[in-house]
Amino acid sequence: MSKTVLITGAASGIGFYVAEQLVKAGHHIIVTDLHQHSAEQAAAKIIEQGGNAQGFALNVADSNAIEAFFNEFKQPIDVLINNAGIQHVAKLEEFPAETWQFLQQVMLVGPAIMSKAVLPRMRDRGFGRIINIGSIHALVASKYKSAYVAAKHGLIGFAKTMALETGDSNITINTVCPAYVKTPLVEQQIAAQAKQHGMSEQQVIDTIMLAPMPKKAFIELDEILHTICFLMADEARNITAQAIAIDGGWTAQ
């Protein structure tokens, strides 16, 4: 059955790939991104391929902007994918306080306020799926990523709480936790980690990023998509509050 799916940070990377693929399954996609032009451009690409999409500017770091968006956007959302994310790599002593707080706004507070906005209509319709794009760093930690790790860990706690609050309805909330995916965000991390550790970018890939993974491979976008499709299904109605690791065996150790 066709569903209306809102994806944050959907103009590029994981968000755009998921949007592009979900329309092929007949779903209607609401592409949101910080910049209006980027969102509209991404939606236009999907429409050119025969898909059904709309593009809107949405700053998930601004709770007032989220509230204003949903005051205007009246269409019910069946599936919310909290995907928007940013990264900053630095020792805590060198981490700008405002940047640390900003990462929390984007990746923890934003998903909470987005979820708050869509829940009433999900309850009215008797169906809802909230899927957080977490990270392996929702389960383990790495040096120089205190803000990112804290926000992603927080998503799991948030999902557990919401699962309790939505247990009386056909609404689920889960967090997909992939290890490193070769996206522009990770490409930037490789360079930043190389600088922090004083090593080459290839050494970062081999000795930091892939070293903890028995499979020694970056996660592919289709693996994340498959997990999302699984969680969206009616048959996943009792899978909630879960952190689903796509980690090549990282957390087995």
What does this structure look like?
The chain is of the alpha/beta class. The protein has one domain: NAD(P)-binding Rossmann-like Domain (Rossmann fold, 3-Layer(aba) Sandwich), CATH 3.40.50.720. Strands 3-2-1-4-5-6-7 form a 7-stranded parallel sheet, with helices on both faces. Helix 4 links the parallel strand 4 and strand 5. Helix 1 packs across helix 8, helix 4 packs parallel to helix 5 and helix 6 crosses helix 7. It is globular, with a radius of gyration of 18 Å. The termini are far apart. The relative contact order is 0.13. Belongs to the short-chain dehydrogenases/reductases (SDR) family. Its EC number is 1.1.1.30. This is 3-hydroxybutyrate dehydrogenase. One of its GO terms (molecular function) is 3-hydroxybutyrate dehydrogenase activity. It holds the Pfam family adh_short.
Itemize the secondary structure elements and their pairings.
Elements: E1 4-7, H1 13-24, E2 28-33, H2 36-48, E3 52-57, H3 63-72, E4 79-82, H4 97-125, E5 128-133, H5 146-165, E6 171-178, H6 184-197, H7 201-209, H8 221-232, E7 243-246
Parallel strand pairs: 1-2, 1-4, 2-3, 4-5, 5-6, 6-7
Helix pairs in contact: 1-8, 3-4, 4-5, 6-7
Keywords: Oxidoreductase
InterPro entries: 3-OHbutyrate_DH, NAD(P)-bd_dom_sf, Sc_DH/Rdtase_CS, SDR, SDR_fam
GO molecular function: 3-hydroxybutyrate dehydrogenase activity
